[in-house]
Structure formats: C-alpha cells, structure tokens
Amino acid sequence: MPKRSLEARGDGPAKIEKDAEKCVIGILEMLKTGKPSQLKSAISRLEGLFLGLLSELSGPTSRVYLKPEEVVNEASLTVEEKYGHRLRKQYSLGLDALQKLMLHSSEDVVSAATEALCRIVKAETVARSRPKKRSAKSSQSQARLYQFAVFSHRRIVLSLLDDTVCNTRALTSVTEYLELDDFRFSTLKTMEMLVREKAEGKGVGQCFVTNCFAILKAIAMPKMQSQVENFIVDMEEAAAAEPAKKKSKGMPKSEEKEKKEFYGDPAGLAAHRRVFSSAWLAFLRLPLPTSVLVRVLNNIHTNVMPHMVNPKLLIDFLADAYDAGGAVSLLALNGLFLLINKYNLDYPDFYEKLYALLQPSIFYQKYCNRFFRLANLFLSSSHLPAYLIAAFAKRLSRLSLAATPSGCMIAVVMITNLLKRHPSCKVLIHRRIDTCIMGEDGEFLAVPETSLDSDPFLAAVVDPAKCRALDSCLWELECLRNHYLPAVSTSLGLLSGVNDMVEVNLEPYLEHTYDTLQDDFESADACLAPSSEESKVEPIVSLP
C-alpha cells in the first residue's frame, strides 16, 4: 500500500486555537451548497483542520474530544473542557457532513469525502491510542492502549451500505484501507451488526444487498497468523499495555463497551475468521436476487469457505440453492462438493438430485463444463452401487441424442469411464436390443429392432433406483455412428477400450465447442477425422 496515500492531506496540522470552532462552522456551511470543485476544496480544508486537531490530542483531554456523544454537565467542566465539548459537537457534525457527501452525485466528491473520512479515522485511532500523560513523579513508562475509532468508522460503513445507491465509487476509495487489519476487522464487525439490524426491519432493498456483497468480495482475508501484522497502531505496544487495564475503572460505559468488543481482537487470526464468518452468515440470510446469488455461488467455495470457522453452517444455504434448479443448482455443486469431500458432510439424496439435473438443457448451460467436471468427480468412487452408475450411464446416453457435438463427446467419455470403474455395468453395451422388453409374465420378449418400445428404461422417473437402467442397453450410442461430424463418431472408438483400467481424461473434451470441431473438420485434422480402420469398429450394441 502506498504510504503517501494514507498520510494526512490538506492544510496540515493546526494548533487548538479559539477560532477553530468558527472555522469548522464556516466550512460546514460551504459543504451544504456549492459546485463539486468548491465541495472538494471545503472537504480538503475540513480534513486538514480535523487532522491538525487530532494530532494535538492526548491524555485526559482526548476523552473530551473523542468520546461518543453523551449528556455532559458543563457546570462541572473547566473552561478548556467546555471548549473541547463544543468542538466535539462540531467534529461530529463535520463527520456527518462527510458521510452525506459519500452519497453525492459527483464521483470526484464521493472519492474526496470517502478518502477524507478514512484518513480521519486513521488519525483518530492514533490519537485514541497515544500514550496517556503521567505525572513527573511517576517512574512508570507510558502505556499505549489500543483504541480504534469505531464510531467514526461506522459512518463509512453506513454510507457503503446505503439502500438507495450502489456506492461502488466509495468502495473503490476504501479498498486500500481494507488492507489494514484493524480497519478490515472493524468493517466486518460493523457490517454484521448493520446487516442483522436491517434483516430485523421491514424490506431489504437490492442496493443494500449488492453493496453488502461488494464489500465482502473486496475483503482479502489473511491465511496465516504471520500475515496479521498491518495495523494503524503498533499492536505489540498495545498488547504490552494490557496488564494496566485495571486502571481504567473510571472509563465511561460507552467506551468500556467499545473496548470490550474491539480491544485486542484484531491481532488474532482466529478473531478475524470469527467476524468474517459472522458477517457472511448474516449476509446469506438476506433475500438475495438471482444476479447476486449467482455471483455468491461463484466465489463461495474459493474465497469464503476456506476462511470460515465452521463451513458446515453453509449447508442450509447451499442446499436451498441446490434445490432451486437451473444454473443456480449447477453453481451450488462446488460448495457442496467441498463440504462433502473435505468436511465429511453427509448430504442425503445427493445423487438423486444430481441425477435430476441431467436434462437436455444441461449441454446449453453457461456452466456446462463445470457441471460435468464435478459430476465426473462425484461418480469416481468405485463403491457406488451398480444401479446408480447404470442410471447415470443410460441417462447420458439418452441425452446424447439431443446434445451438441461437444456434448455428445463428453457423454461418451463419461460413459466410458463409468464402465471402466464398474465392470458389472458393461452388460449395457453387450445386451441385444431384441431382448430389452419384458412381457407381462416377467419374461423378456423379442421385438423388431426398429421399435423404440424395446427400451424398458423409464426416462421420466427421477429416482435412479426405479428407472430400470440395468434392464436396458446403450442403443443411443449406436445412433451416434451416423453423426454428421466425424469427430463424434470417432469418439465412440473409446468404448472399444472399456476393458482397460486407464480412464479417459475428460478435460480435453470439455474444451471443444461447435466452432472448434467444425474448424478441425474443415482442416481435415487427422486426430479427429475418422480413418478407414476406425470406421470398421464393431457395433457397440449387438443387433439381431
């Protein structure tokens, strides 16, 4: 992160003078009206003034300036404390003005206001954490207590999660600060609370959901404890001051609660993972539009689950997405596969639902290749029952009649691998067509080879245990010998090596499209064009 981008910009440090309050009031008036260029100038002046004030604050007086708004008995305050209390009000009004400008129509104003707020939060955190002043008689070293500017930072998150504007420009300005571990930690913590509050209310707008996902996606989580080291304030000094925390008995309740929730936590990777998990779980409970749901499922298995404390908590979300059908179901397979394979999750009726996803439209889906890649992994176990493997092989064979050329080749490769893994299913390519129909007395009856009624396979049944695939045969593959693209008919030669134990690599076939196959055909590629010997391969299914 460039150091210069995080340094204070504007008018530079300023001493606390009596006319500071008047300066703030004048700048606030400028922020209410004006052109974008004037607003940017006013934002710069306000930032410079606040950064100067914060740089002078330390010791007991810092509490007067920086604690949250509360009722104060001015009669009990000194002249300096009264002035500090009034200045605190102007400081709060200035932050409110910058928060509103984060939603301005001008992108330049949004960027300026957002960066100013981020730098002020950084400077306030430093001021809060500055060593407290001790008496000259005290021999103890100055203690540095970590105090993040939670309440000022909350304004940034509130604007980023606005329900009326998709604030992508403001998020772009905040992204570099999310590399700071304490800034990222507080963002996740605040976001979780705001999302829960929003979910308990009435109506969650699409902009709110989109902004939530944009923030979560922009956060890059550390993978190891050694990577949690980029803080606004040196956490080692703050940790050394922890034994002295008993001396803070007189701290106001608001600051005590803030300290209890945020003190020390950003230094641990486990704490980061807890707030990350809580923020994501709170977000996934919101009603997600399809556009956001698809983007979530595209990232959840790579950028979310590895950083969660307990990824199994996502099972309800992934199960609902898996039952939704269409592209959403295909994308949910990635997350479910990770839960089943890595976290030993037992998901009932998983293969039944996977079987139901095999529809003619699967070959025309955007995520077709991803689905078959995962399906090939799910069916790679040799311990699956024969009836289940036969059902998938038969289903793929039937779908190949209406598939794209590349889809036909994918089906042939998958069927070949299924038969290699399960020799008991090879009967599907050796059974004669004229013995595939069963009579009323339970005996097989011969019928003419041109009759489609000879197939006992029940294509409309979604339960692989009841579709009678083992009683059928793969006659559909024989039809592919007359496919108009030679590459498809040539791929059937893979079944001649069904007795080999070496499986066929699926990946090269996933890369094929209609255009690539057509180009190969026109260029007479020897690897795909059928040779005279390959065209004489024995029929897959025995004919009468």
Q: If you had to describe this structure to a student in words, what would you say it looks like?
A:
- With 544 residues, the chain is an all-alpha fold.
- The chain has helices at residues 3-6, 20-32, 36-56, 61-66, 79-101, 107-128, 150-160, 168-174, 181-200, 206-218, 235-240, 253-262, 269-284, 290-304, 315-323, 326-342, 350-356, 368-378, 386-399, 405-421, 427-430, 475-479, 486-491, 507-510, 514-522, and strands at residues 437-438, 444-445.
- The chain has a two-stranded antiparallel sheet.
- Helix 3 runs parallel beside helix 6 (107-128) and helix 14 (290-304) runs parallel beside helix 16.
- The N and C termini lie far apart (75 Å).
- Mean pLDDT is 79; it is low at 1-17, 59-68, 134-143, 243-251, 255-264, 444-448 and 525-539.
Shape: elongated
Strands in their spatial order, largest beta sheet: 1-2
Point out poorly predicted stretches: 1-17, 59-68, 134-143, 243-251, 255-264, 444-448, 525-539
* Total helical segments: 25
Radius of gyration, rounded? 33 Å
Q: DSSP strand (E) fraction? A: under 5%
The averaged pLDDT comes out at 79
> What does the main sheet amount to?
2 strands, antiparallel
Straight-line distance between termini: 75 Å
What structural category do the secondary elements indicate? mainly alpha
User: How many beta strands in the DSSP annotation?
Assistant: 2
Name the quaternary structure: single chain
Report the order of strands and helices: HHHHHHHHHHHHHHHHHHHHHEEHHHH
The proportion of residues forming helix, as a percent range, comes to 40-55%
